[in-house]
Amino acid sequence: MSTLAPIAARFTRAIVVTAPILACILCADARAQIVVSANDAKVRLVDGVNTTVPNAPPDTVTIIDLSRGQPRVVGEIPVPSSIVGPPQNVAITPDESLALVASSTRIDPADAAKTAPDDRLTVIDLGASPPAVLATLRAGNGASGVSINRAGTLALVANRFEGTVSVFTIAGKTVTAAGKVEVGTPESLLSGVVFTRDGRTALVTRNNDSLISVLAIDGTKVENTKRDLAANLKPYGIDVTPAGDTAIVASIGVGATGGADTLSVIDLAANPPRAVNHVSVGPTAEGLAVSPDGRYVAVTVMNGSNAARTSPLFHDFGWLRIYALNKTALALVTESQIGHWCQGVAWSGDSRTVLAQCAVEREILTFGFDGRRLAAGPSIKVGGGPSGMRTVQK
Q1: In this model, does residue 183 exceed pLDDT 90?
Q2: Is beta strand 143-148 parallel, antiparallel or unpaired with respect to 154-159?
Q3: CA-to-CA distance for 171 and 97, rounded, in angstroms?
Q4: What is the pLDDT of residues 253-293, one digit of tens each?
Q5: d(C-alpha 291, C-alpha 306), whole Å
Q6: Which of 31, 32, 126, 217 has a Cα-to-Cα distance from 208 of 20 to 30 A?
C-alpha cells in the first residue's frame, strides 16, 4: 500500500479528520466484505488520448478484503478487462463465492497499436486460496456492464458493440451461457445493466441513443419489454437502491465538452417507471454506487482530468462526491478532490468506507465516511489502470 500523498492533501469541501476518528470510521464489522477491482494494463492515458502500451503485461483483477478494518489485498491475478465502458464490468455473487469480470476490448491481433472488441467473461473463484480463474466464457462484442441477481442464480452482460444482453445461469460455481436478448443496435452502445430487487426486471443503459431499456425476467427467460424510458443525455452507469424503489443513473453526455453531467433519479414504483429528478454533478459522471443502507450515492466525476493538459477543459484532479438520497431527492453532502481519469466507486457493507479507482495513478483510494465528512485513508496500488469495481449488490 501507498499513502495518498499529494492527492489526499487536495481536499476542498471534504474535511480531513484525526487518526482516531478515521480508525473508527474505517472499522468494518466481522462479516466478510470483498471488493473486486478489474485493472486494464494494456492502455494508458497519454496527453488526453487512450493509448495502447507496447508489450503490455496482462490485465489484472485485485481482490480486496474490507472485513479487518483496513483494506487488505487478498490477491491479484491476470484476468482480461478493459477501461472501455462503464466501470461496472465486475459483479460478485451474494455469497461472495464467485466474481464475474467482462472485457470489452483487447489488443488487436492485426495491429498491436490498436484495440479490438472483446467478448470474454471470466469466472473467478473467490473462495480459493489464492483466488483463481475457474472459466473463461463468451458473452458478446464489447462485453461491458455485468449484474447478478440477489438470488445468485442469473447474470446479465451488456454487450456494448453488439446491441445485445447476454444471459448466464449460475449454479454453485458453474456459470453457463443461456442465450442473448436483442436490446438495441450496435450503435446504441449498451453500457450498464442492473437487476431490480425482486429480480423480475433489469434496466440497461443505452449510452449513444440516450435510452434505458426495460427487460422482463421469468426464471431464466429474459425478454425485452420494448418499453424504453429516458433519463438524461447519454446514460452510462446505473444502480438500484436496496429498497428497490429507485434507480440512479449517471450520464456522460456533455462532459467531454466541459459541460455538467447529471445523476438522474428513476422512480421504479411509478407506473410506468420514469425519471423524476436530475442533479448536476460536473463533467463526466463516471463511477456510481448507492450505499448499502440506501441513504447515499457516491459518484466519481472526471472534471476534465482526462483531457490533454493544454486543453482549456483540463483540471488537475477529479472529484469524489457523496449525495444524500431521500426518496427521490439528492443533495450534496461532501466531496473530495481525487486523481486523474478516475473510474469506479464502491462502498463497504456498513456504508462507512468508500473506495474510488484512479486509472492514471493506477491506484484505489479509500475514504472513511461518517455521514458528513470524507476522511482520506490508505491507497492501494494495482497492476494496471483500475477501471471496474464492485462489492456485492445489496
Answers
A1: yes
A2: antiparallel
A3: 11
A4: 988 888 999 999 999 999 999 999 999 999 999 999 999 99
A5: 26
A6: 217
For the record, the C-alpha cell of 153 comes out as: 442464480
**What CATH number should be reported for the domain holding residue 144?**
2.130.10.10
Average pLDDT, the chain: 92
Q: Identify the pLDDT of residue 81.
A: 98
Instruction: Please state, in angstroms and as integers, the Cα–Cα distance from residue 300 to each residue in 1, 31, 74, 284, 328, following that order.
Output: 22, 27, 25, 8, 20
pLDDT tens digits, one per residue of 61-116:
999 999 887 899 999 999 999 999 999 999 999 999 999 999 999 999 999 999 99
* CB-based contact 81:101 (threshold 8 Å): yes
Q: How many domains does the chain have?
A: 1
* DSSP bridge pairs for 240: 247
From residue 80, give the alpha-carbon distance in Å to each of 112, 115, 334: 16, 13, 35
Q: Find the domain containing 292 and state its range.
A: 5-390
Contacts 24+ apart (CB under 8 A), 215-221: 215/156, 215/165, 215/181, 215/183, 217/149, 217/154, 220/154, 220/167, 220/169, 220/178
- Provide the pLDDT for residue 32: 54
Q: With contact defined as beta carbons under 8 Å apart, do 335 and 10 qualify?
A: no
**Rounded Cα–Cα distance for residues 356 and 194 (Å):** 20
Cα 204-124-2 angle, rounded to 5 deg: 95
SS3 state at 8: helix
- DSSP collapsed to 3 states, 155-213: EEEEECCCCEEEEEEEECCEEEEEEEEECCCHHHCEEEEEECCCCCEEEEEECCCCEEE
